[in-house]
Amino acid sequence: MTKLQTRKGFTILELVIVLGIFAVFAGSAATFMFKGTNEEANSFYAKLQNFVRDTKPYALSEQTSYYIHFDKDRIWRSQKEKATFQESYKNLPIPEGAILFLSKNGENWTKISEKKTFTWLFSRSGICESVTLRFTLNNSDFECTFLELTAAVSQK
Questions:
Q1: Under a CB-based contact definition with an 8 Å cutoff, are residues 89 and 81 in contact?
Q2: CATH topology for 13-155?
Q3: Distance between CA 156 and CA 97 in Å, rounded?
Q4: For residue 106, what pLDDT band results from cuts at 50, 70 and 90?
C-alpha cells in the first residue's frame, strides 16, 4: 500500500493562474480609473470650443465688442475689457487641477494663475485675434489654435 504524500506550497501552474487573474483585475481597474479622467478633459475641451465659437455671433448680432476673460477658476464673456466675473454674461468653470497656457498671435505663452489673467477681444464685426490654448488635465494634454478673423479651430 502506498502512502499519500502531503505537499507544502503551490505548484507553478497554480501560481501562474492566480497571477493571471490578478493581472486581468488590475488592468480593468486601471482602465476604469483613467477613463473617467480623460472624459473630463475631453468634455472641458469641447465646452471651451463651443464657448469661444458662440462669442462671435454675440459680437455680430449686438454690434458690440466682446471679451473672453481667463483666470485660474473660470472663463467668462463680457462686454468690458476689464470686467469682473460678476459682470459676465456666461462663464465656464475650469476643472480643478487644470493648467492653462495661452498665446496671442504666436507671442509668448501666458500661464493662467491667481496673479496672471488673460483677455481676448472679439470686435463688433466678429473679428478676433489668433489665440492658441494649451491645457493639461489628468495627464491629458490638449492644444488648439483659434484662427484670427473666424475663431475656427485648428487642432494640433
A1: no
A2: minor pseudopilin epsh fold (3.55.40)
A3: 22
A4: confident
- DSSP, res 130: -
Q: Which three cell numbers stand for residue 136?
A: 493639461
Contact 101, 112 (CB under 8 A): yes
Residue with cell 471679451: 67
Looking up cell 469641447, which residue turns up?
46
Closest among 101, 105, 134, 135 to 118, alpha carbons compared: 101
Whose grid coordinates read 499519500? 4
- For residue range 41-77, what is the model confidence (pLDDT) as tens digits? 888 888 888 888 888 888 888 898 888 888 888 888 8
For the chain, how far is it from start to end, CA to CA, in angstroms? 78
Contacts of 148 (CB under 8 A, 6+ apart): 105, 127, 128, 129, 130
Q: Which amino acid is at 44?
A: F
For residue range 3-41, list pLDDT tens digits in order.
Answer: 666 777 778 888 788 887 877 776 665 555 444 457 888
This model's pTM is above 0.70: no
Helix, strand, coil percentages for the chain (3-state, nearest 5): 35, 30, 35
Q: Any idea how long the chain is?
A: 156
